[in-house]
Design goal:
Structural class: mainly alpha
Radius of gyration: 27 Å
Number of domains: 3
Helix content: over 70%
Strand order of the largest sheet: 1-2
Distance between the termini: 21 Å
Strand content: under 5%
Shape: elongated
Number of strands: 4
């Protein structure tokens, strides 16, 4: 059988299988491929292959026949990835935000004059749990919305032909090296949005960011200066915008395309530049926290190189290495994806 015919068959099989749950795809591919070849004579022509494929029906309708369950809000084609994302995104967001909530509750409790330990502990627990549950619910909602959008916008409506669909519209079989799981793009999008929101809340003072030290009485030190936090807000918004573009690119293309490569590389390099600029600002720490570090001898214990703290230098080097590594890895994946 000619190579062109084989390509048509593989494109048809691929289009059917990609609409099914991942665990069923390989079995369906084998069964469908065998059925098609059984229906074709030896040395079948291109027209004979098209006739058989049209007899089998559109990939959409055939995929529905292979389904063992009816279609839901999140179809079986995406349900496995949807559950996979929820299993780690929701607990991760919930637990991290709950810990932040505990810190916020402790901060609020320390400012009160209440001596009832049970009341203070219940207030801290209540704050942490309520924030954690709220954040987990938000992660659930936005993850679901992401998958619904991907499902309804990711498939173009087929052009109608004599048979209700056209073989010419069959997608090319995706190179395995080029694939990006839908869950990856959606998870990145959800986490970026959720944690950017909390970062903005910290910067605007709606969530306190302070450390507590016992020095006879409880003393609070704001770690970052307000001027630095104000400077941080536009940088967070820029990074969030780049994350959204990157996530949408991965959701839309679902492979290491040039568009995805450019989006990832640009975000990585801009994030690196912004981070290096921020960590080298002279007014990062608040005056009271800096004074505390000087009094405890921490600043004296950390050497400087050319007037720059060694921790800042080490962190800057790690940021540069990380950005370069991600850039090289992304370009390599894109090149491999386009190498047949």
């Amino acid at each position: 059988m000619e190579k062109t015919n084989n390509n048509l068959i593989e494109r048809y099989v691929y289009d059917v299988a990609r609409r099914l749950p991942e665990k069923d795809r390989e079995d369906v591919k084998k069964e469908l491929r065998a059925n098609i070849y059984d229906m074709l004579p030896e040395g079948a022509s291109d027209d004979a292959v098209k006739k058989v494929l049209y007899e089998l029906g559109s990939p959409v309708s055939l995929a529905e026949k292979y389904r063992t369950r009816p279609r839901y809000l999140i179809s079986p084609a995406y349900f496995d990835e949807y559950v996979s994302v929820l299993k780690w995104v929701v607990p991760l967001v919930g637990v991290l935000v709950m810990l932040i909530g505990f810190a916020v509750g402790a901060f609020d409790a320390a400012k009160t004059v209440s001596t009832h330990v049970a009341f203070v502990i219940s207030g801290i627990m209540s704050k942490g749990v309520s924030m954690g549950v709220s954040a987990a619910f938000q992660a659930l909602v936005w993850t679901t919305i992401g998958f619904v959008i991907a499902e309804h916008s990711g498939e173009k409506k087929p052009k109608m032909g004599e048979h209700g669909w056209r073989i010419e519209d069959l997608p090319e079989v995706q190179n395995a090296k080029a694939g990006i799981r839908l869950s990856e793009g959606i998870a990145e999008l959800v986490l970026s949005v959720v944690f950017s929101i909390f970062a903005l809340l910290f910067c605007t003072g709606r969530l306190p960011f302070a450390m507590m030290f016992a020095q006879g009485d409880m003393v609070f030190y704001n770690i970052f200066s307000q001027s630095f936090l104000n400077m941080l807000i536009p940088f967070i918004l820029v990074s969030l915008l780049l994350s959204i573009v990157q996530g949408i690119a991965k959701i839309k293309d679902r492979r290491w395309s040039v568009f995805v490569c450019v989006a990832v590389v640009v975000k990585s390099l801009i994030d690196m530049a912004l981070t290096l600029y921020l960590v080298n600002q002279p007014n990062i720490l608040s005056e009271e926290f800096y004074s505390f570090l000087v009094q405890t001898g921490v600043m004296r214990a950390l050497p400087s190189v050319g007037g720059t703290n060694v921790l800042v230098i080490a962190f800057s080097v790690l940021v540069i290495i990380g950005a370069i590594s991600e850039t090289v890895t992304t370009i390599k994946k894109t090149v491999q994806a386009h190498t047949k």
